Amino acid sequence: MAIDEVLINVALGETRIALVESGCLRELLVERPDQESVVGNVYLGRVERVLPGIEAAFVDIGLTRAGFLALADAHAADDGTGGTDARIADYVGEGDAVLVQVLSDAFDDKGAKLTTRVALPGRYLVYAADGAKVRVSRRITGDDERTRLATLLDELAEDGEGFIVRTAASGAGHEELARDVADLRAAWLAIADNRSTARPPALLHGELDPVCRILRDESGGEVARIVVDDSTTLARVRKICQRLAPALGDRLVLHGASQPLFEVHGIEEQIEGALSPLVDLPSGGNIFIDETAALTAIDVNTGGGAQTGGQQATALRTNLEAAAEIGHHIRLRNLSGLLVVDFVPMRRHQHGAEVLAALRAAVAEDPCSTHVFGFTRLGLVEMTRRRRRGSLSRTLTKSCPPCAGTGRVNSPLTVALEALRAALREAGANPGAVLRLTAHPNVIGALDGPAASALADTEARLGRPLVLNRDGAFPPGRFEVACTHGGGRDGDG
User: Which helix (H) or strand (E) holds 383?
Assistant: First the structure.
């Protein structure tokens, strides 16, 4: 199955985009002004340092931290170099201006990961600026279709151009592909023109914002509805569809119900579940997901489930259920890097093969490259998933000081935005009443800082100020919205 519904919630200092399949949340994108992703952006950078010891370089691209350029990403994929004798100094030197693209956002104390192999995605194609070659997505399986697409692109490509045919191109005609080629070629020429006049560090090309990117990437799928809860954004989405995917125009819907969009569709509850380390399985077992700095560990347990059919039958049944849930949660939580799964032990080799097959099937539709390597000698399954952005947990939560970083709680900004949503709901139930928001000082501080514009928007919708009350006795993750007849802009207790 595929994504059949896109829900776009625009309000209160953030944009949230839910990709839904048959009512089940498959992926959530959250964009906030202070957390904007730079993945896909193309920069003209300046090499700050070359480190022969680790065969890498640090490149200033104008962000808070310098980007990281590894040897493997510093040369063209098909240039015949990069063997055991290759050195980072063969490609860049300190002070050099270098054209780079961001592969993944900054992570913890690490800068953004960079590559010199620029790739510009379109609706059907990816323009590969590093070589004259046409490659077809492995997910397009029909030999005749693969040959047809490769032949079309060979005709459309100019000397020195390379293209990757995306899965969405299956069934696309000459005119659609030619339009994509022309758009991508123009984007690459614009980068070249900007480079000729820019002084590093400089942004030469910005990737589309999340709403545009989703419309581009999902327009070739089976999306039946795109529901937006903001009329201004709906008008912008309609214009985007006219350019990227005219067929989606008739599928746009404005959410007009009084109940919030994500609550109507059960998304808020599913987000809450995606932040919990524990996931229950149908048979009574569970999986426990633990994100660490080095890797993500996933533990599968039979729990208190009934062991019908014996121990080995129970282990197989639990592991097959877990494989499906693991594939789902890897994408939903945006887990990446190294992942290790500890399945319930199985003695039969055939059972292990069944579980691996189920796990590979569960991640097959993930648009982010995921590889399942199999069981290690210790009986663990090793996986890798390409890291592009922070996980959902890192986006919505922060380290929990009371538990010394071993757990996570909602960040003050997340609590502040949730409180504003609650205030709007309370205003709907009590029109004209004065509303008083009581919360931990850090939450009120977020409303005076990064959420200030969201607070102003809320007060404009309310038609009156929202009374803020700092209370140090309140837990950092809780708040209270109450009707009051008292005044004061900030009660401070």
Answer: strand 381-385
Query: What pLDDT shows up at residue 107?
Result: 82
Task: Please count the CA atoms within 13 angstroms of the CA of 276 that sit on its side-chain side.
Answer: 10
- Second CATH level (architecture) for the domain 42-205: Beta Barrel (2.40)
Q: What is the CATH number of domain 5-36+222-269?
A: 3.30.420
Strands (E), 156-302: 162-165, 202-205, 225-228, 252-254, 278-280, 286-291, 296-301
Give 411-484's CATH code, choosing from 3.40.50.10280, 3.20.20.70, 3.40.1260.20, 3.30.720.10.
3.40.1260.20
On average, the pLDDT of the chain sits at 88
* Cβ pair 442, 476 in contact under 8 A: yes
* Rounded CA separation 381/359 (Å): 10
Tokens standing for residue 483: 């009707």
Closest CA to 179 of 156, 163, 159, 160: 156
What one-character DSSP code corresponds to residue 73?
A: G
340 touches 299 (CB < 8 A):
no
Helix (H) or strand (E) holding 102: strand 97-104
Of 166, 168, 77, 64, nearest in space to 116 by CA: 77
The string of pLDDT tens digits covering residues 415-469 is 999 999 999 998 888 887 889 999 999 999 999 999 999 999 999 988 889 999 9
